[in-house]
Amino acid sequence: MIKAVIYDMDDLMVRSDELHIESIIEMLKKYHKNLYDLPESIRSGLIGMRVIDVMKVFKENLNIDVPAKQLYEEKSDIFLRLVKGKLEPMPGLRESLDLFKKNHLKLAIASSAVMEYIHIVLSKFSLKEYFDVIVSGNDVSKGKPDPETYQVACKKLSIKPHEAVVLEDAEKGIASAKGAGCFCIAVRNPHTLPQDTSRADVTVDSLYDISLKTLDLINI
User: Fold this and answer.
1) What is the b/e burial string over 145-177, where b = at least 16 CB atoms within 10 angstroms of the residue's CB?
2) What are the helix (H) ranges across the chain?
3) Membrane-spanning regions, if any (predicted)?
C-alpha cells in the first residue's frame, strides 16, 4: 500500500532548467568557455545531478583550471539570484499536492539541490506546510543516480521503499528511485533535453495527469 509521495524538485516542481543554463553560461564566461562546447549527450546526462557533480564535469571536459568547488560557489550565487526573481512552478504542482494531502499521504522532497535553494522555493510559493520530510543534496554522500537520496527519504518518512511513489522528470532520478526500491512516476518535461523514462512504472505528460487512479495502477 502506498503511504507517501516523494517529489523531486528541479523541473518537476519548478521550471528551473533555463535558470540553471543561464547561470552556467554567465559563470563560464569568466573562464572564456561555452556550455554548448559540450555535446548534447553529455549535457542531457547532467539533468538530475548535484550541482557540485555537474561542476566536476565542466572542469574536466572544458579544461577549467580552478577547483570544482569554486565553480560551484560562483554558479550557485548567480543561480540563487535568478531564482528569486524568475522561478515559476510547474503546471499542476499545487493541485497534485492538495490531492495527496487530502488523501492523507505523507509528502517529501528528495532533491539533488542544496537546502538553501529548497527553502527559497518553499517560501516563494508557500509550500512548506505540505511536506513532512525534506532531503537535499547536502544530506547524501552520493548524488543521483545512486539510490541514497531516496533511501534517506524513505528512512526519514519511516516507511519501506515499496510504500513510496517517487515523482521524477530525469533519467538519473528515475534510476535512483528504482534503485532504492520505490515505485516511480515519470513526468515528462518539454522544456529540458529528452530523458529516457523507460524504467519508470508510469509516465505522464504533466502533474495534472496524476490522480489517485494513477497510484492505484501502481498498487495493483
Assistant:
1) bbbbbbbbbbebbebebebbbbbbbbbbbbbbb
2) 17-29, 40-45, 51-61, 68-86, 93-102, 115-124, 148-157, 171-180, 212-219
3) none
Same domain? For 28 and 112 the reply is: no
pTM of the model: 0.89
Query: How far is 73 from 79, CA to CA, in rounded Å?
Result: 10
| Cell output for 130 | 505540505
pLDDT in tens, 78-99: 999 999 999 999 999 999 999 9
Cα–Cα distance for residue pair 67/165, rounded to 1 Å:
37
Whether the ω angle into residue 194 lies within 30 degrees of 0, i.e. cis, is no
Burial class (CB in 10 A: 0-12, 13-18, 19+), 21: middle
Give the whole-angstrom CA distance, residue 147 versus residue 185. Answer: 16
**Local structure of 171: helix, strand or coil:** helix
Same domain membership, residue 22 and residue 98: no
pLDDT in tens, 177-209: 999 999 999 999 988 889 999 999 999 999 999
Q: Are residues 182 and 132 in the same domain?
A: yes
